[in-house]
Design goal:
Blueprint: H1 7-22, H2 26-33, E1 37-46, E2 52-63, E3 69-76, H3 81-97, E4 103-110, H4 118-132, E5 141-145, H5 151-165, H6 185-205, E6 213-217, H7 221-232, E7 236-242, E8 245-248, H8 255-265, E9 276-278, E10 290-293, E11 312-314, H9 323-331, E12 335-337, H10 339-342, H11 345-358, H12 365-390, H13 397-416
Parallel strand pairs: 3-4, 3-5, 6-7, 6-10, 10-11, 11-12
Antiparallel strand pairs: 1-2, 2-4, 7-8, 8-9
Helix pairs in contact: 1-2, 1-3, 1-13, 3-13, 4-5, 6-7, 6-11, 6-12, 11-12, 12-13
Bound molecules: glutamic acid.
Length: 419
């Protein structure tokens, strides 16, 4: 799906609104509207047929007032620099809101990884990491998985960095495989965190999660695990989709069965136990209690906002709702649990992994998941509390999340004397 707009424009609108709520000066906006550093790198990759193809990648380091930059790297054919900058800004707020000692960063490579062989993917990953190796490190900038990158890619990054630096720096990337200091729980963590956030919001705004109908748009890592855990919590997943289309069944789906079909067919759209097929965007407009957009940016816009029927939207993806759409939905009383709150489970788990690596520890997955759950539900309660106490109910929850996040970054910048 081509990006119709510029996510950086949306990110700046959100920042502007937070600055206004907090009553801060325009110079604070200026200090935060641009990344501290963004690098663009050329990545020549020897393909299996012997030819060399050149890819383009970026790493954007938005803000480091709270600590080293932290955020994933995505491989996607539509990635561009402004998108990576916007995503790094969102990481600053996400990390700040979650109370982590991290600034915000994000990387991207403009590539369709689905058409690469494993060898090509490895060479691309190593070359990219080599190209950014001077600006990353366990105390500088810590990459992690994002769209279409996974623990194997992190293992290559980890090895490449340590080859160049001639060391064993486990804390340079998170989301590593278990045998390289990672946690198995990192794989489920973003989706699990989305499910916990949805459950907390459903308890608060819909009277509970049990029996609530859910549509999940996007069936990658985040969408799949969000659906799986929401079903375990008693919700009914009536619709799922991926980039090629979706399916609906009023009785609800068995999520692992849908995943098996996706593995077989390459898409959920051909899953046989469906009452009807739905389009990749049509799924957003279904009559459900909870909608989980878990794919990419800007799918809920002022164009389709009026047709959205869900009472609660929980953003698994980064930036799925435009500012205009959010305004229209909030005025109608639709509650949106914003991305920086709802999908923070990944980076929270990354932090647990990083701490464990740096102290040479052996935390168990069970303990890590317990910590994650407690942090996610506490974060939701903190944002809802701020919203109820300080903002009008017509304003989106995002305003509360941003006010908390931006204020913490602002205070850190003040303390350091940066502004
Ligand atoms: N890519 C994930 C995100 O957008 C997680 C980043 C991390 O674990 O550092 O939040």
């Amino acid at each position: 799906m081509a990006l119709a707009r510029d996510p950086l424009v949306e990110a700046r609108k959100q920042l502007r609104s937070a600055i206004e709520i907090l009553g801060l000066d325009d110079e604070v906006f200026e200090a935060l509207a641009e990344p501290e550093r963004v690098i663009q790198v050329k990545i020549p990759v020897k393909m299996d047929d012997g030819r060399v193809r050149v890819y383009t990648g970026w790493r954007s380091q938005h803000n480091s007032a709270l600590g080293p930059y932290k955020g994933g790297v995505r491989y996607h054919p539509n990635v561009n620099m402004n998108e990576v900058i916007a995503l790094s800004m969102w990481m600053t707020w996400k990390n700040s809101l979650a109370g982590l000692p991290y600034g915000g960063g994000k990387g991207g490579v403009r590539v369709n990884p689905k058409v690469l062989t494993p060898g090509e993917l490895e060479r691309l990953s190593r070359k990219y990491f080599e190209a950014i190796s001077d600006v990353v490190g366990p105390d500088i900038d810590i990459p992690a998985p994002d769209v279409y990158t996974d623990p194997q890619v992190m293992a290559w990054y980890f090895d490449e960095y340590n080859r160049i630096k001639r060391g064993q720096y486990f804390g340079v990337v998170t989301g590593k495989p278990k045998d390289l200091g990672g946690l198995e729980a990192r794989i489920i963590s973003t989706g699990y965190g989305v499910a916990v956030a949805a459950r907390e919001a459903a308890v608060k705004f819909l009277g509970g999660i049990e029996g609530k109908t859910v549509a999940v748009q996007g069936f990658g890592n985040v969408g799949y695990y969000a659906a799986k855990f929401l079903a375990e919590m008693g919700a009914r997943i009536v619709a799922v989709s991926d980039s090629r289309g979706g399916v609906y069944n009023s009785k609800g789906f068995n999520i692992d069965d849908v995943m098996a079909a996706k593995k077989r067919e390459g898409t959920v759209a051909r899953y046989e136990k469906a009452e009807k097929r739905v389009g990749a965007l049509e799924i957003l407009e279904l009559d459900v209690d909870i909608l989980v957009p878990a794919a990419i940016e800007e799918v809920i816009t002022e164009e389709n906002a009026s047709r959205i029927k869900a009472k609660l939207i929980v953003e698994g993806a980064n930036g799925p709702t435009t500012t205009e759409a959010e305004k229209l939905l909030s005025e109608r009383g639709v509650i949106i649990v914003p991305d920086i709150l709802a999908n923070a489970g990944g980076v929270i788990m990354s932090h647990i992994e990083w701490v464990n690596n740096r102290m040479g520890g052996w935390i168990t997955d069970e303990e890590a998941i317990r910590k994650l759950e407690a942090k996610m539900s506490e974060n939701v309660k903190r944002v809802v509390n701020y919203w109820e106490k300080k903002l009008s109910s017509k304003r989106p929850l995002r305003d509360a999340a941003y006010a908390i996040a931006v204020e913490r970054v602002y205070k850190a910048m003040k303390l350091r004397g940066v502004i």
